[in-house]
Amino acid sequence: MTGHDTDTERTFAALPPAQGRGFAQTWWGKAWLRALEDAALDSGQVKTGRRLARAGAVGAVSVRAGRITAVVLDRDRTAHRADVLLAELSAEQWDRFLDLAVERSGHVAALLDREMPTHLVEDAASAGIDLLPGLGDLEPECDCGAWDHCGHTAALCYQMARLVDQDPFVLLLMRGRGEQSVLDALQARTAAPAEEAPAPEGVDAAEAYAAGDILPPLPAPPVPPHPPGPPPALDTEVPPAPGVDPAALRHLAARTAVEAQRLLTEALRPHSDQRAAAGAELTGAQDAVRLAVDAPDEAVTGRLAEGSGRDPQSLALATRAWELGGAAALAVLEEEWAPDEEGEIHARARAALHAAWDEDERPTLRAVGNRWTVADAPVQIRLGRDGRWWPYRRELGRWVPAGPAALDPATALALAGSASAASRK
Asked: What is the pTM for the complete model shown?
């Protein structure tokens, strides 16, 4: 299967047509495909790419740090060079990932067996290291001139899913390290020191005091648990005191554990500014929305709605926004503001929307403040103060959040449109 290999580049010969089988069988191969299928604005191009890959139209695939390349043949046999880019991990991220790989027994053995351990990927993600690509991480380049994923780059991604399926070291190479480099680093971390004398069981107190200014650094902090553990059980034979709601107390403890886990994870990220990680202090109305997530019953929800000055329907809508993006998403739901219509953000947005559609297919938008609504359609995008765009759709006479934020307004508009179409089915 491999035509030319070095530790910095691998070339895989063209694979036979994928007839009668899916492109990915493993969970990590399917995660690769989701990064393509969930982010592509044109589902028709994704289907075209799937057909090309299934027909064997993708030539030899070259894999190197940050990039994969192949020549893809159209149905009329026209050849196009397609590239897909994926950000490399930094040296610090690689060191942390390798440390995580040797912390649990079985991780290295699984990698050698060409498997990607689920716990390793989850632990890495908790430490701020995304091994598998997420929404918008697969950046396309093609000589056909398409600005988003075309049939050629989509076909390359489908072919790459088959390669990643068989050997996760291919994904690690795209992230910046070849197989031998990874194995050498893992071996260095697991090798026992050769015939070292047993360490003394202590040091003289005077010696330790004298060396106080040259002590070794503290060990790396532990990786926070994900998800957070359950709060302590409140089941006792003692009846609750007057005014104490056990269900509400259990829910408060559970939400506190979730928030504590989030703050700890942010604080332990490399180069984390703990003050920035904590963010601005929430108002009482915002905190009520945070607590309303996964509320156990209507009584708790009612108390939170009343305390935040909302009715139950408004609280449900606010909770929906919070689950998509926390306080930033809640502000976009409830705050209308007027950005500079002649400023750089508006100019970039208009250019992106202009490039995303042909002139006869381009939607007409009415801009009122930070809210841009498609004419004659229940679809809207809203600009947050951080420069991100949020998709919205109209349901039962109210605008509701339709998905996570996107830097590109065309992507947010496509998400809003697809969500609106799905809600009508």
From this structure: 0.45
